Amino acid sequence: MIEAMFSIENLIEIVKAGGKVKTGVDVYNEKGILLLEKNIVVDKIKPLHILQQNGVLSVPVNSHADGGLWDGKGNLIRVGSDGQIEFVPPLTLKKSNAPALVSDYRTDSDIEKRLLEIQTIKKEAVQQYDAAKKCLQKAFQQVRETQGQFDVQEVESRVSKLVDFSVAADHPFPYLNREIFFYDDYLYRHSTNVCALATAVLHRFNTHFSHTIDNFLSENKADISGGGWGGDEAHSASFVYYYGEDLNEISLGFFLYDIGKAMVPETLLNKTSRLTDKEFEIMKRHSFDYGARVLEANGIRSCVLNNIVRYHHAPLFENEEGCYPLDKASSDIPLYVRICKLADIYDAMTSKRSYNDALNQVGAVTQLFRKYVKKDPMLQFVLRAFVKSVGLYPPGSIVYLKNGQMAYVLESNGPLVITFTDDKKNTLGAKPDPIDLGRPGLDELLKIDMERSVKTPKEVYRILPRYIKNIATPI
């Protein structure tokens, strides 16, 4: 794991003594309400008391997302394997709630540290991703052998670990390389991708929409109650769209949404040419028929899982073409099912298969947004959460600039990049300063060429400069 747990009592003592705390992880209460954002630097006791009052007795600190504990002199506090407190030289904290800045990378060591962070998260992501894929592959095989049954507890445990890591590391799976997939492997990778992405969208939607409604209730409390809420006490967060248990159950559904394909003939799953009308009718049954049967065979009567499995190809707006089944109005499709469908479409569009070229991330998001924008108000919240969660330029990826240069992404906000080739794709000899590609007034030629796909270091390894190649080697 990339995080350690610290008790609230210990954190309070550190802050009382003049220290600071930054979790690097969003902290929620048991209702799923966000109590402390991951980028907030806590130097007052009150936020910690609020966590304590809401039943949060310990919190994770993610050192690979710039989280940490510092004493009053700026020394990083670390708990050693023997349980003793250790101190390391001071680190500069980023400003609270602020995105990464070019000024955060003043020295070569700053850049080196970020490259190592990217590589560390990438290694963990590979392990989590591969374990999830193997778990799903095993479940599919069990369904085929038993005509429906699989080890539900094993899947639940694996999904829990995948989701915990994904949330803590702020959806790290775009770090991973996308290779050419054949369907037998694509099926499991695709479902793992959908689960990770849809979970990130779900959490972002839940936080932002819950805050929007709660703020509305707070601002209009006199009108709602007909004279106030009974006193002048401050309004405490009360509304939440999905609670913690709901989020976990929905993520399990995201992982199993295509489980019905285990009962589709493998000749159809592996077919590389267009399906005939008859074959497509069989394929369609993976959701509302085969998938529903698998859930029933395992005694899974969850309304959430049934909705995701049955309706992840249902229409999201009236008269949407190519959708099935059609026994529910689009307005009756739950929001979590809509999130699953968007993630499913996006990942299929951006995955390269033996018979289909991948679309670049920008093009895929643009197509999805144009198709579903302004269809209904709730879908707009989902779309905004989706665009924010996708991460068009994930750290550790490669972008092309309009002047022909290639650049390595350090931070997705902006994004912040380091150019490493000239306009002829020759590797630069000197290490240039990072550039904020989102800076107003930036030369048009230094902007990202959105017609070209985002790459990973593995795909351009030959021309990477040594200082990147030595640290951020592809996995």
Element order: H for helix, E for strand? EHEEEHEEEEHHHHHHHHHHHEEEEH
Q: Give a short account of the largest sheet.
A: 4 strands, antiparallel
So what's the CATH class of the largest domain?
Mainly Alpha
Global geometry:
globular
Mean pLDDT: 82
Number of domains: 3
Set out the fold topology.
Blueprint lengths: L2 E5 H9 L3 E3 L4 E2 L5 E3 L9 H8 L4 E5 L5 E3 L5 E4 L5 E4 L19 H39 L5 H17 L14 H37 L1 H5 L18 H13 L9 H4 L7 H21 L5 H9 L23 H16 L10 H12 L4 H14 L7 E3 L5 E6 L4 E4 L15 E2 L29 H4 L6
Antiparallel strand pairs: 1-5, 2-6, 3-4, 6-7, 7-8, 9-10, 10-11, 11-12
Helix pairs in contact: 3-4, 3-5, 4-5, 4-7, 5-7, 5-11, 5-13, 7-10, 9-10, 11-12, 11-13
Walk me through this protein's architecture:
The strands form four sheets. The protein has a four-stranded antiparallel β-sheet, with helices on one face. The chain has a four-stranded antiparallel β-sheet with strand order 9-10-11-12, covered by helices on one side. With 475 residues, it is of the alpha+beta class. It has helices spanning 8-16, 46-53, 108-146, 152-168, 183-219, 221-225, 244-256, 266-269, 277-297, 303-311, 335-350, 361-372, 377-390, 466-469; strands spanning 3-7, 20-22, 27-28, 34-36, 58-62, 68-70, 76-79, 85-88, 398-400, 406-411, 416-419, 435-436. Mean pLDDT is 82; it is low at 80-98. The protein is globular and about 65 Å long. The chain folds into three domains: 3-98, no CATH class; 123-223 and 240-390, Hypothetical protein af1432; 398-469, no CATH class. The two termini are 18 Å apart.
